[in-house]
Design a protein that fits this description.
It is built from eight helices and seven strands, in the order βαβαβαβαβαβαααβ. Strands 3-2-1-4-5-6-7 form a seven-stranded parallel sheet, sandwiched between helices. 45% of the residues lie in helices and 14% in strands.
Length: 265
């Protein structure tokens, strides 16, 4: 598309896990704006279909598939769906993730395993399937992992399993970047800070706190952010376009923190 220069994604086909809403949908919107064709993969198939319909009605540049990344078969199914729909897979964004807030002393093995199955194992084997396809195509590719500022520093009590999984995402990104570099596949990660999404709003309303207490929590959170506001999905989407584009051709194994300066504070 005109005006995108080195950030142009025209002719590229991307799959985004957890792309039906929140950060994933924000990334999908920016990818379509930049000229890519996008497959939305989400555990909620109806939401994925609705998201694809919003992105580019009638133009054939967005499609959807239901996928639970905790299923070991999900990666191969997502790749096959993208190739079937668009002919190739050039970009994978591993965005799907869960973040139950439960103190470790109350966490069950099943819950801990579920967090890892989605946030780390699912990411790893979706990446494996995508990398095999990219190698077979012979023209390289881009893999963008959504990590977290909690990959670097804990943000609150109750996220021990989540933080451990996201720390794993960071090291997986770095190691796989070494492995895939000879195939011209760049693997990088984004570490979002606090981002307002449908998921975080549902989490807030599910708490026993009063509206006044929720407002105070939000005020306190924003007070920790030097730029003075919570993030929005588009803040992450624009950085994802950069990492998926030729502008980032000499980057691999990197982590870009997008948190409004929160870690600095």
């Amino acid at each position: 598309m005109p005006g995108w220069g080195p950030f142009d994604l025209s002719g590229k086909n991307a799959a985004i896990t957890g792309g039906a809403m929140g950060i994933g949908f924000g990334i999908a919107q920016r990818f379509v704006d930049a000229g890519a064709r996008v497959l939305i993969a989400d555990i909620d198939g109806a939401a994925a279909e609705a998201a694809a319909g919003k992105l580019d009605p009638g133009a054939g540049r967005a499609a959807a598939t239901r996928a639970d990344v905790a299923d070991p078969r999900a990666g191969e199914e997502i790749v096959a769906a993208c190739v079937r729909q668009f002919g190739s897979l050039d970009i994978l964004v591993n965005n799907a993730g869960i973040y139950p807030i439960i103190p470790m002393l109350q966490t069950t093995p099943d819950l801990f395993d579920r967090v890892y199955a989605v946030n780390l194992r699912g990411l790893a084997f979706c990446t494996q399937a995508a990398a095999k396809q990219m190698i077979a195509q012979g023209r390289g590719g881009k893999i963008v992992n959504i990590a977290s500022i909690d990959s670097l520093h804990p943000s609150l009590v109750g996220l021990a399993a989540y933080d451990a999984s996201k720390g794993g995402v960071l090291m997986f990104t770095k190691n796989l970047a070494l492995e895939l570099a000879p195939h011209r596949i760049q693997v990088n990660a984004i570490a979002p800070g606090g981002v307002t999404t449908e998921g975080t709003q549902r989490l807030a309303t599910a708490t026993p706190l009063t509206p006044e207490q929720l407002a105070e929590m939000t005020r306190a959170a924003v007070a920790r952010i030097p730029l003075g506001r919570m993030g929005v999905p588009d803040d992450i989407g624009k950085v994802a376009v950069f990492l998926a584009s030729s502008a980032a051709d000499y980057m691999t194994g990197a982590l870009i923190v997008v948190d409004g300066g929160m870690l600095l504070a």
